[in-house]
Each structure stands twice: as C-alpha cells, then as structure tokens.
Design a protein that fits this description.
six-stranded antiparallel β-sheet; five-stranded antiparallel β-sheet; 2 helices; dTDP-4-dehydrorhamnose 3,5-epimerase
C-alpha cells in the first residue's frame, strides 16, 4: 500500500498493492497500522455505500459538529472526487484537491475532518464506498456550493452539461457564507 501526498498535505491518495492473475485479483483496502502512520489514529465507526448515474454530483458535504474523516473509494465505475479545506486557520483554507477514483485504478482518498467532500460521476454509473470517523449527524450536516467561483473547482463535466444535484446541494452555501472550522 502506497500513501501519496497531495497539494494539501493532510489529504492522501492511497494506492493498494494489487495481486492478480487469470482468476481475478486480491488487494488490501485498509490496514490500520499503515493508515495510522500516514493519516489518522481515529477509529472508523460507520461505512456507507452509494450508487449514482453519470452526471450526478454529490456534495460538497461536511458536518460542522461531529466532523467526519472519510476514506473513500469506487468499487464500480469512475468519479472525480474533491476535498475542500474548510479549516480557517489552515494555510490551505479554501483550497481543493481533485482526484479520479475508479474501479480500474483502485485508488482511495483520505479526506480528513475539517474538509468538505464531494464527487461527480463520469462513467455510466458508479458505486462509491467510504468509511467515516464519526456518525452521520443530520442536524450538523452542511453543503458547500459545488461551483463557487471562489473555489474554482475544475469539474470534468460530461459534455459540459450542468450536473444533477439534490435540493440540498442546489441551495448550498458559498465559501464566504459557509460555516467553517476554527
């Protein structure tokens, strides 16, 4: 398992060692001692799994209280995955990292607490799984505007079409208006 730094040091790309032959493949997707050394020492308490079709954008989500660190990966299809730093006292506040995650490249992304997270489905459909360091807390759930010009996220929109969003994400806050972390 290889841990790769991104432009934001706390956000890590994780590339598994994949062993395969004509029967299929095997890979470890999580090893606690390596993860703690490179990323985090908090336990995971919740796993989530979603399926979305092409053009769906989920995010950018975060919890202002009971923040969740997320270890994310794609088990079918491909997404463009984004983490945005919302820690006001950070040198990288308001900056983002974007990574292609797919069932082909088998990469994972570690998105620590204090970041908004979202993904856009570029394949026909995608199944997305992630481990969380805290439980979902709907009363503290927030959404950051996916296309905030201040963030200038370079989403790889299929055919340049606007993504399909939930009502919550359509009404998301801009970075200037958003609740952020001290």
């Amino acid at each position: 398992m290889k841990f790769i730094d991104t432009e934001i040091p706390e956000v890590k790309i994780i590339e598994p060692s994949v062993f395969g032959d004509d029967r299929g493949f095997f890979m470890e997707t999580f090893r606690e001692n390596l993860f703690e050394r490179h990323c985090n020492s908090r336990p995971f308490v919740q796993d989530n799994h979603s399926k979305s079709r092409q053009g769906i954008l989920r995010g950018l989500h975060y919890q202002i209280k009971n923040p969740q660190g997320k270890l994310v990966r794609v088990v079918s299809g491909e997404v463009f995955d984004v983490a945005v730093d919302l820690r006001r006292n950070s040198k990288t506040f308001g900056q983002w990292v974007g990574v292609v995650l797919s069932s082909e490249n088998k990469r994972q992304l570690w998105v620590p607490e204090g970041f908004a997270h979202g993904f856009y489905v570029t394949s026909e459909s995608a199944e997305f799984v992630y481990k969380c360091t805290d439980y979902y807390s709907p009363e503290h759930d927030r959404s950051l505007l996916w296309n905030d010009p201040t963030l200038n996220i370079l989403w790889p929109l299929v055919d340049g079409k606007a993504p399909e969003l939930s009502v919550k994400d359509e009404n998301a806050a801009s970075l200037q208006e958003a609740d952020t972390f001290a």
